[in-house]
Specification:
By secondary structure, this protein is an alpha/beta fold. It has three domains: 4-80, no CATH class; 86-162 and 362-524, Vaccinia Virus protein VP39 (Rossmann fold, 3-Layer(aba) Sandwich); 174-290 and 309-342, no CATH class. The protein is built from 21 helices and eleven strands. The chain has helices at residues 7-18, 24-32, 49-57, 59-71, 86-89, 105-112, 140-148, 159-169, 174-193, 197-215, 220-226, 232-253, 266-269, 273-286, 292-307, 344-364, 382-389, 391-400, 422-428, 447-465, 485-491, and strands at 4-6, 46-48, 130-133, 151-156, 328-330, 335-337, 370-374, 402-407, 468-478, 494-503, 516-524.
C-alpha cells in the first residue's frame, strides 16, 4: 500500500484508522521529527499511507498513542526525545557522576538553541547570551550553554553539587591529571598488595563460581523458578546458609576484618573495613595534590568510586536497605553474590572514563564562561558573588545582564539532595545545608510543605529578577501535580505565557507508569 496522501487526507485517514482525532499538526509533527518521510514538490506535501501504518504499529508509535490516552492529547511527544539512545542522553560529562533528579541535555538544547518547529514558534536565546540556572544541581544547563556558545551562571545550595557542576565545565590540565591519577593508582596497588583482601576476593570468586554452577545453573535455575519447580525463597535461603561456612573459613584463613567497629555515620555504616581502608588511603593522597583543578577532578572520581562500593546488594544500589557484610542470594543475577572488598577496579574504570569524558567535552566547549555559585538562590547577590569567583565574567554579567533562566526546581517532597551524596559529605567534610533545601523529601508533600515550597520558589524568582534583562524568558521544568506554579508566578510578579507537557521516558524508578512534566514559560507581567 503506497498511496500518497496530503496532510489533510492523512489527518482524516489516521483519525479513522486510530478511532481518535488526529490533527494536521499531528501529521506535520511526524514529518518534522523524521517519524515518516515527506514527499511532493511545488509546495504540496504528501505522505505515504504505508509509512503511517508502519509508524502507528511501531513501538514508539504505540507508546505515544497509549501515553496520550492516559495523559491527554496536549502531550508534546517531540519533547520525549524517544529517538535518543542512552549514550546521547548521558554524553560526555553528563555522566561524570551519578545524580538523582537531573533532566536530559536534549531538553536544554531544545529551548536554548536557534531552531523553531510546530511547538517552538520562536527563538528565545542567542550566542553570547547569559543564562541563569538557580537550581543548578549537577550542572546540565551550564554544560549545554558551553556547547551552544552561551554563558551560564549556576546557583546551588549544595557544596557538593556545586563541585560536580564546576568540574564538568572547568578547564583541565590533562597531563597533570594523568600524572596524578597514575601516581595514586600505583600507590593504591602497592597498599593493597600489603593486605589480603584481593587474594581473599579471588579465592572467594573461585568458590562462588563452583557453587553457583552446581546450584544456580544459568538459565536453568531461573526457568525452574518461573515454572514453580523451585520455591525460590526456601531454596535460596538454604543455599545461602550452605555457603556461609565456606565464606567464614576464607575470612578466617586471610585474617580479614570485614565489619567496622563503629556505625555512627554513612561511611562507617555502608562500607566494609577493607574498602574503608582504601578510601582513607586515597583520600590522604588526594590532600597533597597541588593543582586545585586536578584536585577537584580527582575528588569527583573518588566520590564516584566510593558510591559504587557501598556494602549493599546489587538490587538495592538505589535504595540502600541494609548493609551486606557477607555473601547473599542476588535476585537480580539469580545466584549467590558477594559485596565488594576492594575499590581498585572501580577506581581504575572511573579514572579512565573521567579523562575520556572531560576530553570529549573540551573539544565541544566554546570560549564562553560557565560558573556555579554555592549559595541560597533566594537571597544571593549574584553579580557580587560571581565577581569574587571570576572578575571578568562578573563584570560582563553586570553590564550585559542575564537574558533568562532555564532550570528544573526541586519537586516538592521527592529528593533529599544532600542525603543522596551523604558519603561525599562524610568523607570530604563539606558543610551540609539540608535545612535550606526547598521542597526536600524529609518535609513531605503536605499543605505546610507545599506552602513553604511556593514561598521558596517565588523568592528565588523575585531575587533572580534583579539580575535579568527587561525582556527576559524563564523556562522551569516541573511535575506540578499540586498546581502550584500559577501561584508561584503570581507571587513573583510574572505570568505563565505558555506551557509544554512532555512525557518522561526511560525512568530508573520501579514505577514505570505514564508520567509527564511541564515546562512553564514565564515572562514579566
Amino acid at each position: 500500500m503506497t498511496d500518497l496522501l496530503t496532510i489533510k487526507e492523512a489527518s482524516d485517514w489516521a483519525t479513522e484508522y486510530l478511532k481518535k482525532n488526529v490533527t494536521t499538526s499531528n501529521i506535520s509533527y511526524l514529518i518534522q521529527y523524521g517519524r515518516i518521510k515527506k514527499y511532493g514538490n511545488n509546495g504540496t506535501t504528501s505522505v505515504k499511507k504505508d509509512d503511517l501504518i508502519k509508524y502507528y504499529k511501531s513501538f514508539n508509535g504505540q507508546r505515544e498513542n497509549n501515553w496520550k490516552e492516559k495523559l491527554g492529547e496536549d502531550l508534546n511527544w517531540a519533547l520525549s526525545f524517544d529517538w535518543c539512545k542512552e549514550k546521547d542522553t548521558t554524553k560526555h560529562v553528563h555522566r561524570l557522576h551519578p545524580y538523582k533528579g537531573k533532566f536530559i541535555p536534549q531538553l536544554v538544547e531544545y529551548f536554548l538553541d536557534d531552531h523553531t518547529d510546530n511547538f517552538k514558534k520562536e527563538t528565545y536565546f542567542k550566542k553570547g547570551d547569559i543564562i541563569l540556572d538557580p537550581f543548578s544541581g549537577s550542572g546540565t544547563t551550564m554544560v549545554q550553554t558551553g556547547e551552544l556558545g552561551m554563558h551560564a551562571i549556576g546557583i546551588d545550595i549544595s557544596a557538593f553539587n556545586t563541585l560536580i557542576a564546576n568540574v564538568k565545565v572547568g578547564r583541565v590540565d590533562f597531563q597533570d591529571l594523568h600524572t596524578e591519577l597514575t601516581r595514586i593508582t600505583n600507590q593504591l596497588k602497592e597498599f593493597i598488595s600489603k593486605n589480603n583482601n584481593l587474594e581473599f576476593e579471588n579465592d572467594l570468586l573461585e568458590e562462588l563460581n563452583v557453587f553457583n554452577k552446581k546450584y544456580f545453573p544459568s538459565p536453568e535455575f531461573k526457568i525452574k523458578v518461573r515454572q514453580k519447580q523451585i520455591d525460590e525463597k526456601t531454596y535460596t535461603a538454604e543455599k545461602e546458609n550452605e555457603f556461609t561456612p565456606k565464606f567464614n573459613q576464607l575470612v578466617e584463613k586471610y585474617n580479614l576484618k570485614i565489619k567496622q567497629e563503629k556505625v555512627d555515620n554513612f561511611l562507617e555504616k555502608w562500607y566494609l573495613q577493607p574498602i574503608k581502608n582504601e578510601i582513607d588511603f586515597v583520600f590522604d593522597l588526594l590532600k597533597h595534590i597541588k593543582n586545585p583543578t586536578t584536585k577537584k577532578v580527582i575528588t569527583i572520581i573518588l566520590s564516584r568510586t566510593i558510591r559504587s562500593c557501598r556494602a549493599t546488594t546489587h538490587a538495592d544500589l538505589a535504595t540502600l536497605k541494609e548493609p551486606v557484610t557477607q555473601t547473599y542470594y542476588c535476585r537480580k543475577h539469580g545466584k549467590i553474590c558477594k559485596p565488594l572488598f576492594s575499590m581498585l577496579s572501580w577506581w581504575e574504570r572511573y579514572s579512565k572514563d573521567t579523562i575520556k569524558r572531560l576530553a570529549e567535552y573540551s573539544k565541544l566547549k566554546t570560549t564562553t564562561y560557565q560558573t556555579c555559585l554555592q549559595g541560597d538562590a533566594r537571597n544571593v547577590n549574584i553579580f557580587d558573588k560571581l565577581k569574587e569567583k571570576n572578575k571578568t565574567f562578573g563584570e560582563l554579567a553586570e553590564n550585559k545582564k542575564i537574558k533568562g533562566i532555564f532550570s528544573s526546581p526541586p519537586y516538592v517532597g521527592l529528593i533529599d539532595y544532600h542525603e543522596q551524596h551523604a558519603y561525599a559529605y562524610d568523607l570530604f567534610g563539606f558543610e551540609r545545608n539540608d535545612e535550606l533545601e526547598i521542597g526536600p523529601l524529609f518535609k513531605g508533600q503536605g499543605i505546610q510543605a507545599r506552602n513553604s515550597y511556593i514561598e521558596g520558589i517565588s523568592q528565588v524568582l523575585i531575587n533572580s529578577k534583579k539580575y535579568l534583562q527587561d525582556n527576559y524568558d524563564i523556562f522551569l521544568v516541573s511535575n506540578d501535580k499540586y498546581n502550584m506554579y500559577p501561584t508561584i508566578a503570581e507571587k513573583a510578579g510574572m505570568q505563565i505565557i505558555n506551557q509544554y507537557k512532555r512525557p518522561v521516558l526511560n525512568r530508573t524508578e520501579k514505577d514505570k507508569s505514564a508520567y509527564a512534566e511541564i515546562i512553564f514559560h514565564l515572562k514579566s507581567k
